[in-house]
Structure formats: C-alpha cells, structure tokens
Amino acid sequence: MADPVRVLLADDDSLIRTAIDAVLRPATDIELIAQAADGRTAIDLAVRHRPDVALLDIQMPVLDGLAALREIRRLAPAVQIVVLTTFGEDEYVAQALAAGAAGFLLKESAADELAYAVRAAAAGNAYLSPKITRQVLNRLPTVTVRPEEDLKRVDMLSDREREVLVLLAQGLSNAEIGQQLFVSEGTVKTHVYRVFAKLGCENRVQAAMLAQRAGLLDPPSGPAH
C-alpha cells in the first residue's frame, strides 16, 4: 500500500480544525499529522514535519495564511499548499495562486471535495473549487479578442472535451457536468484531466479563462427585435 498523504492543518478556529479532522479521518489514504492556530506555528510545523500537503486558512493571527504560504514555499518547497477559507474574494485567489498554492477551497466545500483537493495537491496537480472558478469568471470583463494560440489549443480538443470545458468554465462541478452529459463523475474527471493536458492548464480558472478568450462562452445570438 502507498503511504497516506500527510497533512498539516492551520486554522485559528478550533471548531473548524475539529470539523476538518472529522472530515478527513475516514479517508484511510490521508493522515492529519499536525495542527496550528496561527501562521507562524504553521511555518514551524511545516519545516519540522515536512507534510505532503498543508491546509492553510487565510485569516490567522501572528501571521496570515498568505504570508505563511510564501514562507512555507520558500523553506519547504516540496510541501503542497491548499488554501482553505470562508472568504471567496478573487484577490485572495490571485494572490494565493501567484504565491504557489496548489488549491483554493471554501470551507463550505463538501467533504469529498476537500479530500479530493488534498489528493490532487499531493499528486502535484492544482485544484480550485468550482465555486471559486465561477466567482473569478463573474469578475472578469467581457473578452472580445480570440488569440490565435488559444484557438489552436481549443481545436485540439474532441467534441466531448470541448463540452466538458464549456461546462467547467460555467462553474459546474464534476458531478454536475456528469449529470448534464449523462456520464459518470469518474468519466468527467478523465475528460477534465485530458482538457488540462491539451490546453496546458493547471486548474479550472486557467481553463475557464482560456475558454472565454477563445469565445466558447459567448452567449447565443437571439432574434432581432
């Protein structure tokens, strides 16, 4: 058997830490090895224990999650970091991704989504909650240009992969995409993986922004009035 994914959790709310512990405990392939209540302690524990994944809250005393993220990436670059917060503002998403976060989840995310994000980060993949993807896209200005390179990359997709990309870019989760296309969630995950690989994207936001630039999200033209 493969070793379990070793996780560090940092959140100043003890109730949140207890709830996340309860969510992750049933997953036999994930082990919560340390907990911190502030950003400075999170850095110390990350350097000491070298977890596979660190779950970091944004708002913490002593040192906030974004500052802790940057320090952990500097001192222990092998640690993959998933930002977990009640705040969904797009400026946090941008800062976290720019600082090297491997994932960004709202604390209200379902238990299976949290575990999936931990596994994805441990495997070296980026994961953003569909709700985050939707929020970021809603903040973007309407894009009218269609860069030639983006169009070439989209042309590499199969018809089904293009369908998945459009639904993903609309902020749907894998389960919701499966319901729309009448396929299993596992099949959707395979399509999403192939879409990311062909487009050269690391997460849902990057793929969604490319889809928008390529004109895949243009609203259909209605009848003239």
Which key features would you list for this structure?
six-stranded parallel beta sheet; 225 residues; 11 helices; alpha/beta
How do the strands and helices of this protein lay out in sequence?
Elements: E1 5-10, H1 14-24, E2 30-36, H2 39-49, E3 53-56, H3 65-75, E4 80-85, H4 90-98, E5 103-106, H5 111-122, E6 127-128, H6 130-139, H7 148-155, H8 159-169, H9 174-181, H10 185-199, H11 204-213
Parallel strand pairs: 1-2, 1-3, 3-4, 4-5, 5-6
Helix pairs in contact: 2-3, 6-11, 8-10, 8-11, 9-10
Strand content: 5-15%
What's the β-strand tally?
A: 6
What is the overall shape? globular
**Main beta sheet, described?**
6 strands, parallel
Distance between the termini: 65 Å
SSE string, helices as H and strands as E: EHEHEHEHEHEHHHHHH
Which ranges are low-confidence, i.e. pLDDT below 50, for 5 or more consecutive residues? 219-225
Strand order of the largest sheet: 2-1-3-4-5-6
The gyration radius over C-alpha positions equals: 18 Å
Mean pLDDT: 85
Class of secondary structure makeup: alpha/beta
Helix coverage percent: 40-55%
Number of helices: 11
Explained architecture:
- With 225 residues, the chain is α/β, with parallel strands linked by helices.
- 52% of the residues lie in helices and 13% in strands.
- It is built from 11 helices and 6 strands.
- It has a 6-stranded parallel β-sheet, with helices on both faces.
- Helix 8 (159-169) crosses helix 11 (204-213).
- Mean pLDDT is 85; it is low at 219-225.
Structure summarized in a few sentences:
With 225 residues, the chain is of the alpha/beta class. The chain contains 11 helices and 6 strands.
